[in-house]
Each structure stands twice: as structure tokens, then as C-alpha cells.
Write a structure and sequence with these properties.
By secondary structure, the chain is an alpha+beta fold. 19% of the residues lie in helices and 34% in strands.
């Protein structure tokens, strides 16, 4: 997004619904588009609601009240919508449009995605068929060997009905070394590798001529699924909860009146959830600049501060998704050449 487009996003938040439609290249005259556009702000808070009698259950004075009503079940939030306060009523607005608006006023949000990846994002995922995926031979997390090679694993592609939904998965059977279990082998210890939103490896089931044992406990390999495309799968993801705040910017002007100018940048408190653990990323800091040339530059407008409550309402209670970009993360490739290039890059430290 260019600087001009960013400015349009901020300006649109001051111009109203029609202004925002224009900022995103829409036609302001179309009523249905206006209903789905990002509204500017709710009405000014009333000072005496009691004098108005009993308000409707969806009446509001700000976005925070709509969020509270939605969480209590008094105001429904349709799928793919966010309930915001406009003209004194809690109204649903399109989640994707609001997310585009949010990324326009906070570039840091562009690291995150709104929807989780799933196996069927890859065009090659076809339930009921089989697929070969290539992995480095240390895919179980062992230290990478010199001159490591890529091996092929055969997966069955499935969609399994669960209590709440259908779940996509890939299933392969491997031996103690993590290699493909040979077809026709009757005895030995084999493990099941199951790929879905996480990669799970079950402890071996062992079969001898006189006995057998079922699968034992399971462990995760890699993180959450972060990418599924024509090249393969990447398990390098985290889930995130995000809260925006005003990150103070202070301009000190020695000898001027006023001495300091204050404004906001949008900061983000991020709580990351990775497989097995969770943690909070909070790096709040104040930016202070001092004028050293003896001049008194004017205090600049503070356009982002009034947008933070609305941004908080858009992000509240939602889970977002992030790819870490760790080279050693679990990766499965459709082409052996891509896997070989990945292993070579790891060995060379690139």
C-alpha cells in the first residue's frame, strides 16, 4: 500500500461512510455497498440515557458497548461480520472490509492473516486419493546431517467427520527412522503421522509374529499449519490475539509554547499461541523527539488517537494467524527438487 493509500484510509475514517467507499474505489451511491463499508465512528455518548426511557436491546453509545452486548448474546454477530455502533444502533459490518481498513492504519497488522490456512488451500489436496510429499530425512526434529537427503512419504488424503465439523487430514505410516513404511511388511514398529492444522506423530505400534501393541502417546512436529499451496505445506505458524493501544509520540520544543506536542502511533499488544505454549509480546515504548535548531514547528494533528477505540472493537475477541519464517520449521514439498534446494540452503546457513 502506498503512502497515498494509507492517507486515504485515515482520511476516510474522518469523512464518513461515503468517504471510505471512495477511498477504497467503491461507488458511494450504492446503498448495499454503503451497508458493508467501514463506518467512521459511533454517535457522541449521551449524557442521560435514563431520560429516554428503555432503549432497544441493540442501542449503543460506542463500539465497546456493542462488543459487550455481542459477548452477552443480546446482540447477534453474523458469520463474517463485526458489530459496531453506528447512529445509536449496533450494526453488522463486513469483517474482510474492516480488516483491510485496519491494515491501512496499522502496517504492523499486515504480518497477520484473518483466516487460518487449511489443507484444501492446496490444489493437489483431493480427499480419497494419495499424494507423495518430500521431507528432509531429519523431519522429526533431529539435527540435520551433512549431505542430508530428501525422502518421499506417501499420504492418504481424507476428510473426517467430527462432532462439530469435517476435518481435513493427511495420513502416512513411517518406520523407526521416519521413512516410509514399506508396502507388504508384516512385522516391525510403525508410527502414524497425521497432518491437519498441526502435525502429529504417534508413538509406534509394534507387531511381531506372536503379539501386537496399539499406538501410544502423540507428540507435535513443528508448529501450526501456516501455508498450504501448490509447492507443499509449512508448519511454522502461530495464533495471535491483538490489542491496539496509543504509542505516545512526544515532540519537545525548547523555548516554545507549549513546550511539548503529543500524538499517537498505533502500537499492538500481541499474545502469541504456538504449539504447546503461549506468550505475550509487549514492547511498549514512548518515542521522544527534541527540536534542536531553535525553531518552534507547529504541533501536528493527531488523527490516529480517535481511531483506536474502533480498531480495538474490530480486533477484539478474534484470532489472527502469523507465519514465523523459521528455516528449520517442518516443510513438506510436492517436488523433490524443491526439497533438495531447501536442504542445501539449511546446510549452507542461508
Amino acid at each position: 500500500m502506498t503512502t497515498s493509500q494509507k492517507n486515504q484510509g485515515v482520511d476516510a475514517a474522518r469523512l464518513g461512510v461515503a468517504g471510505l467507499l471512495l477511498a477504497f474505489g467503491c461507488h458511494a451511491g450504492r446503498v448495499e455497498q454503503a451497508r458493508n463499508a467501514v463506518p467512521v465512528r459511533g454517535p457522541e455518548p449521551s449524557t442521560n440515557l435514563a431520560d429516554a426511557g428503555s432503549p432497544p436491546s441493540d442501542s449503543c453509545v460506542d463500539d465497546a458497548q456493542c462488543t459487550a452486548l455481542e459477548k452477552s448474546g443480546l446482540v447477534p454477530e453474523p458469520e463474517g461480520k463485526v458489530v459496531l455502533c453506528e447512529a445509536g444502533r449496533c450494526e453488522p459490518y463486513d469483517e474482510a472490509v474492516l480488516w483491510e481498513w485496519a491494515q491501512g492504519i496499522s502496517a504492523d497488522l499486515r504480518e497477520f492473516t484473518l483466516k487460518p490456512p487449511k489443507l484444501s488451500d492446496a490444489s493437489w489436496f483431493r480427499p480419497g486419493s494419495r499424494v507423495s510429499l518430500y521431507v528432509p530425512e531429519n523431519w522429526q526434529g533431529n539435527e540435520l546431517k551433512r549431505r542430508a537427503r530428501c525422502i518421499a512419504l506417501q499420504f492418504s488424503e481424507e476428510v473426517v467427520d467430527s462432532v462439530e465439523e469435517q476435518r481435513e487430514r493427511l495420513v502416512a505410516f513411517v518406520d523407526d527412522a521416519g521413512k516410509q513404511w514399506p508396502a507388504g511388511r508384516r512385522y516391525g514398529c510403525l508410527s502414524q503421522l497425521e497432518l491437519r492444522e498441526t502435525a502429529v506423530l504417534y508413538d509406534p505400534s509394534c507387531v511381531t509374529p506372536t503379539s501386537s501393541s496399539g499406538y501410544g502417546s502423540a507428540r507435535y512436529v513443528g508448529q501450526f499449519l501456516s501455508r498450504a499451496d501448490d509447492t507443499g505445506l509449512v508448519y511454522d505458524g502461530a495464533m495471535a490475539e491483538i490489542t491496539p493501544y496509543c504509542s505516545p509520540v512526544t515532540l519537545r520544543r525548547p523555548g516554545c509554547d507549549p513546550l511539548e506536542c503529543h500524538s499517537c502511533r498505533i502500537g499492538l499488544d500481541v499474545t502469541l499461541h504456538v504449539v504447546g505454549i503461549g506468550g505475550r509480546s509487549n514492547h511498549r515504548r514512548e518515542l521522544v523527539r527534541t527540536v534542536s535548531d531553535g525553531t518552534c514547528p507547529p504541533c501536528l494533528p493527531d488523527p490516529l488517537r480517535p481511531l483506536i477505540p474502533r480498531l480495538e472493537a474490530v480486533l477484539d475477541g478474534r484470532t489472527f494467524y502469523l507465519e514465523h519464517g523459521v528455516p528449520e520449521a517442518l516443510r513438506l514439498f510436492r517436488k523433490k527438487a524443491d526439497c533438495d534446494a531447501h536442504v542445501l540452503a539449511l546446510e549452507s546457513g542461508n
